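Design request, tokens follow.
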């Protein structure tokens, strides 16, 4: 299949490289990803400034295109300008940190996949349930099989799969569960310490995740 691979952690992230290596042997993979990290930008798009596209090499070889924009921008410009013919599926990830509950709204990873669905292309967002340095092996072993299913069965129009993979060895993954989006959300707090020397006040976001009504439909 012709696959567009993108993310929100940036084109130099380890997760997108791991997924590229897992998919490129079987598929025609084009990488278009943000030049810098774009975590939690949601479904933002750029229209006041021009977008810059540049080629990126990793490990001495051409890897893909870096875009000076958001994950949604990457999908838009890849489908309309960079990939001829357009992709048959868009895969966004592998993201560090699960995208569940209200976080799905903020996620650039999920928003890239959602933009693909808006443009009529089946899509998958892939995240690891870890904010530390993750072993991406479980995700890279699972996603190729999922793509083979999509190639045979397809997805209903406008549907995106948001896949969250546990940060455990693939042999310990007990199966697949299809579920609805929960309502887990972060309750924000702000650290006001360390203000700038010339006035003003810094507000550094923090907080904790609350599993309030996580199982409500």
């Amino acid at each position: 299949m012709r696959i567009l691979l993108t993310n929100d952690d940036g084109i130099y992230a380890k997760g997108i490289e791991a997924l590229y290596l897992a998919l490129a042997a079987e598929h025609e993979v084009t990488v278009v990803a943000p030049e810098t990290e774009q975590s939690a930008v949601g479904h933002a798009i750029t229209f006041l400034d021009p977008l810059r596209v540049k080629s990126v090499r990793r490990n001495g070889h051409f890897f893909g295109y870096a875009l000076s924009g958001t994950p949604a921008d990457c999908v838009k410009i890849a489908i309309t300008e960079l990939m001829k013919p357009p992709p048959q599926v868009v895969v966004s990830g592998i993201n560090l940190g699960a995208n569940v509950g209200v976080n799905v709204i903020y996620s650039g990873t999920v928003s890239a996949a959602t933009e693909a669905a808006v443009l009529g292309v089946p899509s998958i967002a892939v995240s690891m349930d870890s904010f530390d340095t993750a072993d991406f092996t479980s995700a890279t072993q699972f996603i190729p099989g999922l793509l083979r299913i999509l190639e045979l069965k397809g997805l209903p129009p406008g549907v995106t799969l948001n896949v969250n993979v546990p940060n455990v060895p693939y042999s310990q993954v007990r199966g697949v569960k299809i579920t609805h989006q929960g309502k887990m959300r972060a309750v924000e707090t702000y650290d006001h310490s360390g203000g700038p020397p010339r006035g003003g006040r810094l507000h550094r976001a923090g907080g904790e995740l609350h599993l309030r009504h996580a199982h409500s439909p």
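Comment from the thread starter after seeing the answer: thanks! The chain has two domains: 2-169, 180-217.
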